[in-house]
Amino acid sequence: MDISTYEYDVIVIGAGHAGVEAALAAARMGAKTALLTSNLDTIAKMSCNPAIGGVAKGQIVREIDALGGAMGLAIDRTAIQFRLLNRRKGPAMHGPRAQADKLAYHQEVKRICESQENLSLRQETAEELLVEEAGGRTRITGVLVRGGAIYRAPCVVVCAGTFMQGLLHFGDKTMVGGRAGEEAVVGLSRSLRQLGFVVSRFKTGTPPRLNGRTIDYSRLEIQHGDEHPVPFSFMTNEITQPQLPCWITYTNERVHEIIRQNLHRAPMFTGQIQSTGPRYCPSVEIKIVRFPDRPRHQLFLEPEGRNTLEIYVNGLSTSLPRDVQEAMIREITGLEKAEIIRYGYAIEYDYLPPDQLHLSLETKRVEGLFLAGQVNGTTGYEEAAGQGLIAGINAVLKLRGKDPLILRRDQAYIGVMIDDLVTRGVDEPYRMFTSRAEYRLRLRHDNADRRLTPLGRELGLVDDVRWNRFVQKVEAIERLRAVLEATRHGGVPVSRLLTRPEVSWEDIVSIAPSLAEFPREVVEQVVIDIKYAGYLAREEAAIEQQRRLAEKRIPDDIDYFSVPHLRAEAREKFSKIRPRDFAQAGRISGITPADLAVLALYLERRSRPDHSVSATSGELFTQVKEDEVQAGRIVDEQSALGSEISFEDIHRRELPVFDCLDDGHSD
Fold this sequence. Notes:
Elements: E1 5-7, E2 10-13, H1 17-28, E3 33-37, E4 51-53, H2 57-66, H3 71-78, E5 79-85, E6 95-100, H4 102-115, E7 119-123, E8 126-134, E9 137-145, E10 150-152, E11 155-158, E12 167-170, E13 173-176, H5 187-194, E14 200-206, E15 209-211, E16 221-223, E17 246-250, H6 253-261, H7 267-270, H8 284-290, E18 298-303, E19 310-314, H9 322-330, E20 340-342, E21 345-351, E22 369-371, H10 381-399, H11 413-424, H12 448-459, H13 464-486, E23 488-489, E24 492-493, H14 494-497, H15 505-511, H16 520-531, H17 533-550, H18 568-577, H19 582-586, H20 593-607, H21 626-630, H22 647-652
Parallel strand pairs: 1-10, 2-3, 2-11, 3-7, 11-22
Antiparallel strand pairs: 4-6, 5-6, 8-9, 9-10, 12-13, 12-21, 14-21, 15-19, 15-20, 16-17, 17-18, 18-19, 23-24
Helix pairs in contact: 1-10, 2-10, 2-12, 3-4, 6-9, 13-16
């Protein structure tokens, strides 16, 4: 019997938010790409909350857009409400968020995929990953799909979401599925285990949906969108579609008591669910137990679209039985007569601990195999899409024999996320917060294009239209800066006046009315840059230190168990993570400055024919004693006082232990 075989450069498995960005990126870069999904009618489907963005998440969406991705454009065209969160806080905390028309969003993303050159959409269910052994290494060669057809490609990106071995929980009832009404994927988990990957389980959940016709909105608090909405895409001039309101209500003690009386029927408490769920988006039963003294919890009633009355009850995620869900709803203000049209449920699914990845999102075990999205232990559409974009880019760079794209922590929230996943691993579903980014003042949503669009242009992700628009914006920013420097008031440049906290842009315009002609987005960039220049300069010093550490590469072939005097914990963690440089090595949990210094000394000795350590300014590191390593310090044997020298001291003073770590010694 003939086997149907198809040849591609890149194959993407799964057409959720990670999969579509991976496939679109690869295709835009010129790779012949196939996007495989079990159901073309669920491309970019919002399984849970019908919204895009939020604090930190909105920044990720703008970064995706700055690199030419689809998410920002799609939500701008299909959203039903826009809000910029945290307006009263500083600009680093601002987060754009939009309520989506779920069906329209899916249709728009599907249209974008269908319109993309070099991209083929295929309704197929992946069953097995195909590999070959060559030169002692395992390489991906393609995918076997249900029905026996084979898709061949040297690079494959797995974006399976919650579908791998998905198990749905409705009270004490369970059913196999990737989400309600859709079958799970079984073969991929089995195939990954056979290839030697560690596969674990996480849990997430979703709330009930209500028929809006049965809700008493007169008893609810209305929440309107912004009067002047901020778009997600840098290509969107303005949002013109009418916005719909959301509403707010609360749980109460009666609801809490119903939940407490039925905890013996809650899968999270009976032992039926064994997996860990997201800490920052817990089920309502977890909230009631975790915060027993809180009299109420806020609920947001969010429309799922313009042409439906279905309402999403944000904040009421649950896997309690349906009769308990109905009893809960009847006790909530405004929902006394509300009808549930979809019951809430929990889902357990397989994921792969992300310490099995390189920072490129390529797996360490199988060359050419990339993972992105919830399969890496994350939660959220935005986190998934950001990973998908990077995985798609790096799959093409892999094909071309080029170095992967590794976004730094000071460069993008996407870089922070991937570094966290790979370097620190996860013990619960990972969600992005601004607090995870140590350089968040420069990782604002408003400057994502200035940070990333030039990079996207180099990679072939940014077309001429977007690039010309970006160049015009940058030129306008420079013109405004020049005008502010040249315009004086009281003998002082108005740019200096603007550094004062009490001076606003309106005050400057009153001095020089011609400045009112500059576009809002240009003014915003310049004002923030000027007002926060001191803080940004302070951040730059820390960033420069990290960059210098990142330049000190660690050879890929190092056997950490052969490094003398290295602690057992450090050997295990270095071997597991295999950091690419000293900056990443220093971020691994449990690694001390002494561990890094021991490794640096070892690498220098290894690089010298006589295995010696060079001396500079009379300082010589000749011995690292085991007890001193355990105490977290290195003793300078030449110092009469036995002074302690930290890894930072070694680096700052540029002692020769780093001589071997130049790029020329890292290959």
